[in-house]
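Reminder to self: tokens first, then the designed residues, so the page reads top to bottom the way the pipeline ran.
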């Protein structure tokens, strides 16, 4: 039983199906002790409406990769193509949810004003902004918090507001950088299910960075596993679990355990410095 699907899931050249193309990107930082190569050469695609998780060892460059894709950091090489166009700065079609919701929401604005802000910048009329913001707050389960300020909400609720803001924007691609790392385990499970259900309902394309292997396998249709730095794609793992997932039955599915074990073993190899030459894993049951 093989897990690897590199190339099979996101065929380049399948016209109209690719939302995001990451083509040979490289990133080096200039530090006091000289240049540090973080991303060596990364290539992968994300199909429209696909849910892809990125995992890799700590310090492997996951956040750097997301910042490159979001146009927040200049590339040292390669290109990022969103909806067929190479990006040269933060593109209009992307929204990002960061880990640090406390700093991403404006405390002096109400919840609804926070959600409406990017829509204002997009030039949407007031009535449309209100409609979208209220629908998004409803979708994340916060219809009664529109007039509250972020500091009056729990951490989990604030992260829901950040998700509502991203969803209301109706992005072509939604980037999420460890968005649940700062919330407790119970809230984390609830927000994971919320994001899965929003993804199913809205058909948005999601690229989700996490250090949590279980979370990646639970959420994604495909997991892109990164090597340690300088980073390359170690393997793309197709998550062939049923689309309908829930915290109990999915996590106790033997296939979930196989996939988790496989991704775990890849990351252990990556940590030990093994690069692209990881032997293909086969499950004990094959
Ligand atoms: N602005 C910067 N200048 C210099 N080095 C940087 C900068 N940002 C990140 N790095 C380095 O790049 C490497 C990758 O960092 P990054 O935060 O992208 O990794 P990560 O995989 O997201 O890490 P973690 O899982 O621990 O959050 C690290 O060695 C980090 O020290």
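Designed residues (286 positions):
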């Amino acid at each position: 039983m093989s897990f690897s699907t590199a190339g099979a899931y996101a065929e380049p050249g399948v016209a109209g199906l690719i939302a995001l193309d990451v083509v040979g990107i490289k990133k080096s930082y200039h530090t006091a002790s000289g240049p540090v190569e973080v991303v060596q050469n990364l290539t992968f695609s994300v199909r429209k409406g696909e849910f892809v998780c990125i995992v890799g060892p700590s310090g492997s460059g996951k956040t750097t990769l997301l910042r490159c894709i979001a146009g927040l950091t200049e590339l040292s090489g390669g290109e990022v193509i969103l909806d067929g166009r190479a990006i040269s700065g933060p593109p209009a079609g992307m929204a990002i949810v960061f880990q640090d919701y406390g700093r991403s929401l404006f405390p002096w604005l109400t919840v609804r004003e926070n959600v409406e802000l990017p829509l204002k910048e997009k030039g949407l009329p007031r009535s449309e902004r209100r409609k979208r913001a209220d629908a998004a707050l409803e979708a994340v389960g916060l219809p009664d918090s529109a007039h509250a300020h972020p500091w009056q909400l729990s951490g989990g609720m604030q992260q829901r507001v950040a998700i509502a803001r991203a969803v209301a924007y109706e992005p072509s691609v939604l980037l999420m950088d460890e968005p649940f790392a700062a919330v407790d385990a119970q809230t984390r499970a609830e927000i994971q299910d919320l994001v899965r259900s929003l993804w199913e309902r809205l058909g948005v394309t999601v690229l989700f960075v996490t250090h949590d292997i279980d979370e990646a396998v639970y959420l994604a249709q495909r997991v892109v596993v990164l090597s340690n730095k300088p980073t390359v794609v170690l393997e793309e793992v197709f998550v062939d679990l049923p689309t309908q997932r829930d915290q109990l039955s999915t996590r106790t599915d033997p296939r979930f355990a196989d996939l988790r074990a496989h991704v775990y073993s890849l990351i252990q190899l990556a940590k030990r410095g093994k690069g692209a030459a990881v032997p293909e894993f086969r499950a004990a049951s094959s």
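The first helix runs from residue 62 to 69.
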